[in-house]
Amino acid sequence: MSHDGAPGRQDGNWIGRSVPRVEDDRLLRGNGRYVDDIALPGGVEAAFLRSPHAHARIESVDVKAALESPGVVAVWTGDDVAGLPHMLNKEELRTPPGLAKVLDPTVRMTPMPLLAAEKVLYVGQPVALVLAENRYLAEDALELIDVRYAPLPVLVDPEEALDERAPLLHEDLPDNTAVAVTARVGDPDAAFSSAHTVVSERFEAHRYVASPIETRAVSAQVDPYSGRLTVWSGTQTPHRLREAIAHTLGLATDAVHVIAADVGGGFGQKGILYVEELLIPHAARLTGRPVLWREDRNENLTASSHAREQIHDIELAADADGRIVGVRDRITVNFGAYNMTGLVVPYNSLCHLLGPYRVPHVDIDVTGVLTNTTFATPYRGAGRPETVFAMERAMDRLAAALGLAPEELRARNLVGPDEMPYATGLVDRSGSPQSYDSGDFPELLRRAVAKADVEGVRARQREGGRNGKHLGIGFAMYIEATGLGPFETARIDIAASGRVRLAIGAPSQGQGHRTSMAQIAADAIGVPVDVIDVTGGDTEATPFGVGTIASRALVNAGNATHRAGRLVREKIIDAAARRLGVAADALDLSDGVVSSKEPGGPSIDLAELAGRAPMPGTPEPTDGRHGTELSETVHFRPPGFAVASGAHAAVVEVDEHTGGVEILHYVVVHDAGVIVNPMIAEGQVTGGIAQGIGGALYEEMVYGPDGQPRTGTYMDYLVPTSSEIPDLDMDELHTPSPMNDLGVKGLGEGGAIAPQALLANAVEDALHPFGVIVRRGPLSPSRVRDLIRASGTGAPGV
Questions:
Q1: CA 636 and chain centroid, separation
Q2: pLDDT digits (tens, 9 = 90+) for 58-81
Q3: Phi and psi at residue 369, to the nearest 5°
Q4: Strand 488-494 to strand 500-504: parallel, antiparallel, or no bridges (unpaired)?
Q5: Helices (H), 587-746
């Protein structure tokens, strides 16, 4: 794979190399430092009493017995924290002014009490907090708390919640609508009325959970000397957490220090604010002791944020040649009990629905609905897997109606590379006109079709199913707007030892930042990659930052690093010029050594340059114009989105007797612009696909009509292991983004976007003899058998 000529390259050529991840040795040896590993002397542990009801009024809470339980330090109820403001994810709920002006969306605020005092709205909502000498004693005390509930009507179905007769979850709102937004392009009514073919379908993206290996955890301590509050958290957004803690506790922002420790997976679930992250610091301040809380797996499955649940009533209109003339979609999103992130997921779904296709007339309406289920927030892909499921499933249904091969229908409607930048007519999340900056969608599809061996698969299909096993092939394509703003920070310092210290605002949850960001810095400065130390997600090291969400870290933190590195490079050469007594333009910096461009000229290495001083421990004199500190801080603000894209293909075998789905061949062709580290990029795509396969075939968060979760443990909630994930046949294009200096695009979420649609298409193709239409997942054996049975043409015994 070549990246020659890409922006940002220097003599070191570190960008584009599969440098082994420097993180791995420490983590694989068990030397990681997760929140639970941070042992603070004299600490206490916290446990939460959570509501067993989906909707109920709290009549009384009696904690007397719990307070008398051995080892208990404190027990709090909603009344004890009533003076603290309710939690609100302000940044996530903010509607960009441009978007507000163009579309005037409805976004209703639902502040969440830190502990429920009047009523509970979902099973798992925190009602009381116990602090004890250890978690076991805290759990024992929870059982002694007596809460009297008066059950209320429960709403689980979002469409039922929209009924004007439905009970209100939040009595200060007029109905159960959390957000609503509509977008139109062209004249869709005319397009549909004159179309040759129209298909109308209902597709449902089912609810499932990020389920990271490391569950959520937070620890807090007050410094006894300075009174400063330090918080360790598995958060993806430490700066936003710092601001929320300061606001909640009435502190100055710089009185709170948040550190994102090693994180065992985030996937968006750790990218939002939770009440536990505010209560634990509060407890540390009130008790004067360090406090630790980490959730168990049942809490993570039932009380951490959920995702994905959407209903799409979608219509496609096409002319006689199979060219799409219009799209209509009515999208209903189940928000759960609280509006935590506003338009983020619904609008992502809206502005990614068209994907790589040319659609002149569009009518999309999105409604986010409040129900008595755990709140839903972004999960890897954040609204894109759901909308791609609807669009790509509809594309296959349209292909069937037109008598076209699915890949042929897609090819006829793809935006071409000569049309870039391509304006869709919609507006993006920032409120600016949506534009695809670069890409070659037809080439993505061509490569996927070739790798999947469509002709060979069709020939085998014509031979018929053997022993009740049926072959199917599917395709799915997507685009992803990456590099969400508003900014990210990078600070570079040259230490006296000559080592390079890079601090970025974005923490890592396994993305390999300490390697890829070091590669960018090494190229920008002109030093070896192994002299660079990278710190991420520490609000002390970088006072300003946003976080690692929305496929934004490489685009924003990477370009901030590149620009800071280039500025430091200039400072290094300038300092060397003064030290060596030669002109700066006569010097070059490569491999950590500043040397004359002329053979035999003077040179000085970085350690000597940074470490030398007139007297040990004293700084070099300066004339006021030339500083001696070799450091720079850059805040990179992206001018727009860098649009990544991909085409996936899969060949599956479906057993009509057992309902089992086996993936025989999985093809992925992706375009993320310039690739900094191909090995890390491949790992990111692979991980995303694994999670997408989990959602397509295994994972589902199921609620009963009473709002009780039925999949609260791994005995019920199935997560795929490595044995369920096939080897991937991977290829990639490289169309550099013109939206940033490095030409990079985000790819952390890309792999997770297509698998649900892809495998649904492939399974439906395999079950074509039965006339099966796949309208939701996961495609578990029991659901596949139900589909065959419902077709009326099922195999004996099905």
A1: 20
A2: 999 999 999 999 999 999 999 999
A3: -120, 140
A4: antiparallel
A5: 606-611, 678-697
Three-state DSSP state, 154: coil
Give the pLDDT band of residue 466 (cuts 50, 70, 90). Answer: confident
- Give yes or no for a contact between 741 and 681, defined as CB atoms under 8 angstroms apart: no
Provide the angle, in degrees to the nearest 10, between the axes of the packed helices 755-766 and 678-697.
50
Residues in contact with 641: Cβ distance below 8 Å, sequence separation at least 6, in sequence order: 428, 429, 430, 435, 437, 481, 482, 483, 484, 739
- Alpha-carbon distance of 292 to 326, in angstroms, equals 54
Check residue 612 and give its pLDDT. Answer: 63
Cis (ω within 30 of 0) for the bond into 486?
A: yes
Q: Is 341 exposed, middle or buried (0-12, 13-18, 19+ CB in 10 A)?
A: buried
**Mean pLDDT calculated for residue range 202-211:** 97
The residue whose two tokens read 């079709």 is: 449
CA pseudo-torsion sign 691, 697, 699, 705: positive
Cα-flanking dihedrals φ and ψ of residue 263, to 5°? -125, 125
Q: How far apart are CA 341 and CA 307, in angstroms?
A: 12
Asked whether the bond before 639 is cis by omega within 30 degrees of 0, the reply is no
Q: Which residue, 666, 682, 646, 670, is CA-closest to 759?
A: 666
pLDDT of 622 strictly over 90 = no
Backbone angles phi, psi at 139, to 5 degrees: -65, -40
The rounded Cα 382 to chain-centroid distance in angstroms is 6
**pLDDT for 8:** 36
Neighbouring CB atoms inside 10 A of 704's CB total 11
Residue 360 is predicted with a pLDDT of 98
CA dihedral 573, 577, 583, 589 (to 10 degrees): -30
Torsional sign, CA 188, 193, 194, 195 = positive
Nearest to 383 by CA among 362, 353, 359: 353
**Distance from C-alpha of 644 to C-alpha of 478, rounded to nearest angstrom:** 9
Q: What is the pLDDT of residue 92?
A: 87
pLDDT at 792: 78
Cis amide bond preceding 421, omega within 30 = yes
Token pair 């360090």 in the structure block, residue: 290
For 181, list phi and psi in degrees, rounded to 5. -155, 145
Tokens 């209703």, residue? 108
Backbone angles phi, psi at 90, to 5 degrees: -60, -45
